[in-house]
Every structure is written in structure tokens, then in C-alpha cells.
Amino acid sequence: MTTTANRVERRLVLVVGAVVFVDTMFYAAIAPLLPGLAKELHLSKLSAGALTASYAAGTLVGALPGGVLSAKVGPKKTVFVGLALLAVSTLAFGFLNNAALLDIARFAEGLGGACSWAGGLAWIVAEAPVSRRGALIGGALGAAIVGALFGPVIGTLAAAIGRGAAFSTVVVLTLGLIFEAARQPSPESVTQQGLGHLRGAIRSRGVIVGMWLVALPSVASGCLNVLGPLRLHDFGATAAAIGGVYLLAAGLEAVISPAVGSLSDRRGRLLPLRFGLAGTTAVLLCFTLPSGVVAMGAVVIAIASSLGAFWAPAMALLSDAADTFGLDQGLAAGLMNLAWAAGQIVGGVGGGAIAKAAGDGLPMTLTAALCAATLVALPWRSLNAFARAQ
Fold it and tell me: For residues 331 and 39, what is the distance between their CA atoms, to the nearest angstrom?
């Protein structure tokens, strides 16, 4: 029986992992394309930040509706909606050459991502025991990070052969994923909960802390995704070199995330989060120190790696809190999307605006200060039942 259950778990994580892999792959493809698009479309750092953050804006708008959709029609159908939106919007991004239209295409990608993640995470949590939640979420996140790893490769390829040719593959990939997801058993997790059920949940300490610990690394990631490629380009890095840096960064993060998720199942959610906060604070303060491509690339990789300690335990913490409150896991996943998207927008748009006005150092220093303050405020003992796997 246990072997059969483990087999089902592995198959589910593979399917959901493949869905978020494709989603993050096309999300992350923007990094090596950004300098070329900025030059071609005459984008300022603020406009480049807006283009990068348009995906997150779509996720922000779609976060709670995606969670409600998962609660009412089920995780599987919600994943189908997300994949369909991803296919159409990414294909459009491949052929459009207007800044405003590209922003809209990225926004639609974010809407699709909100549905894919809400459905996928709710699907995993519905089928997984609490004692394995962090590891399974970490496994799906690892697949997503590998997608982010391949994203710069796709972006580099798009810079060489054209966005249209490179991004057209998304239609084939999403159709294949829809077919494979349809073969999996549907989880029995339809609850008919709606937005009204969130009112009490968002006053819960565990939910608030979980959302903040998802949002904070997202702020850092948003800053890094805008300022990292542009700073590397300023030092003379080519699109291929920028893609290589982000490839290595995502590779390390993909290894770290599942391991950290498993650690959080055994030792509690807060332990890896404390290490992540300390490490991220230190490396963010080093962002403006390098004066060449190699050193700058090393700092970008170090920041991305330190962020890998956040995602799985923070999401598992939020999922644990939802269980305690009786909140549907689709809605909990919607809150995760909401927190992630808000952080990306603050980091991408806000970080780009601050960097334009006062230089790259200030947004990174402010983000480091938030990490340090959170580390100090985070309790050293277990955060009630929410901080430790049951």
C-alpha cells in the first residue's frame, strides 16, 4: 500500500512539476532578452521593470480567482485553464513588437500561471500526507526552478533565431501536458469555498507570517531579475553570458529547494527560513561591489541560491496554517500566488524605479534591511502548530 501511495505521489509531482516547469521556463526567458528589448523598444529601467513585472501583475490579479476556481471546480480543471492561457499568451509574446502589447501578453501569462500554480499546489496538498508536504512542494518547486533554469536558454535562443520561432514550441508542450494531466485521477478536493472564507483566514498569525515569507524573497527576486541582467550587460556581458549566469543560478536553486523542503518536514519550517534570511541579507549587500562580469555573475548566483531556502518551507508553512484554519488548499495556493506576485511587482517595478532615481545599491540595501528585520522578528521557537510539520 505504501509503495503504491509513493508511486502515485511521484507521478503527481512529475505531472504538476512539468506544468510549473513550462510556466516558469517562459517566465524566466525574459532575462537574456531584456537588454535587447530595452534597446529595440527604447525602454528605461522603469519600463524594463514594468515589462518584467507584468507577469507578476497578471498573477496578482488572477491569484484569488485562481484559488476560488480550484476550490469550486477542482485543481485539475484549474490547471487546464492555466495551460490554455499560457499557450495563447506566450505565442503572442513571440510575435508582438510593441512595448504595451508585450506587457499585456506577459500579464496574460501571469493569469495563466496563477491558475496553474493554484491548481497544481492544491492538487499536491490534497493527495500528500502532512508529514511529506514540504518535500513534495519542494519537489514541484525544484521542477519549476529547473524551468527557470531552461528559461534563459530559451531566451538566448530567441535572441539568436527570433522570439516567434523559439516560443512557438509552447503550443506543443502545453497540449502534451493537458493530455498527460487528464490521465491522472482527479483529487476529491472540491469544497465550494469562496472569497468570503478568506476574511478570517488572513487574520490568522500563521497565514500572515506564511504570506510574508513568500512575499519577501519574491521582492528580492524581482529586483534581481531586473537589475541583474542590466548590470551584467553594462559590464559587457552578452545575452548568452547573461543566460549562462541565470542558468547556473537556477541549477543551484533547483538542488536546494527540494532538500530544504524535506528538511522543513523533519526539523520544522522556521529553521531553513532563518538560514535563508541570514544568507540573503549578506549577499544582497554585496550587489554593487563587483566591477566585472565574472564577479557580478557570482553575486547574482549567490543571491538566487540563498533564495532557494525560502520557497518550500514558506509555502508549506502557509499550507499548514490553512489546514489549521480549515481553509481550502486551492485558496491557500491563491494566497501564495498573491504574496509572490505582490513581491515581484514591488521588487521589479519598485526596484527599477528606485534604481533609476538613486542607483542599484539602494533597492538591494532596502531589501536586505527587510530580510534582517524579519530574521530578528522571527520567533526562535516553533510558530505554534504552523511552523512545524505535523
Answer: 40
What pLDDT is recorded for position 384? 46
Q: 106 in a domain, yes or no?
A: yes
**Can you tell me whether residue 237 is helix, strand or coil?**
coil
| Sign, CA torsion 334/338/339/343 | positive
Q: Rounded to whole angstroms, how far apart are CA atoms 48 and 148?
A: 19
Give the domain range for residue 132.
2-195+202-377
Does residue 286 sit within a domain?
yes
Question: 13 and 120 in contact (C-beta within 8 Å)?
Answer: no
CB under 8 Å to 254, separation ≥6 — which residues?
142, 143, 145, 146, 148, 149, 308
- Mean pLDDT across the chain: 82
Roughly how many angstroms between the first and final C-alpha of the chain, as a whole number?
Answer: 21
Q: What is the pLDDT of residues 128-148, one digit of tens each?
A: 777 777 777 877 777 787 777
Which residue carries 557570482 as its cell?
298
Mind listing the pLDDT tens digit for each residue in 274-327?
888 999 999 999 999 998 899 999 999 999 888 888 888 888 888 888 877 778
Write down the pLDDT at residue 190: 59
Q: Is residue 388 part of a domain?
A: no
Q: How many angstroms separate the Cα of 31 from the Cα of each of 39, 56, 380?
A: 14, 15, 37
CATH number, position 108: 1.20.1250.20
Rounded to whole angstroms, the Cα distance separating 92 from 50 reads: 18
In a domain, 170, yes or no: yes
pTM of this prediction?
Answer: 0.74
Structurally, the chain folds into a number of domains equal to 1
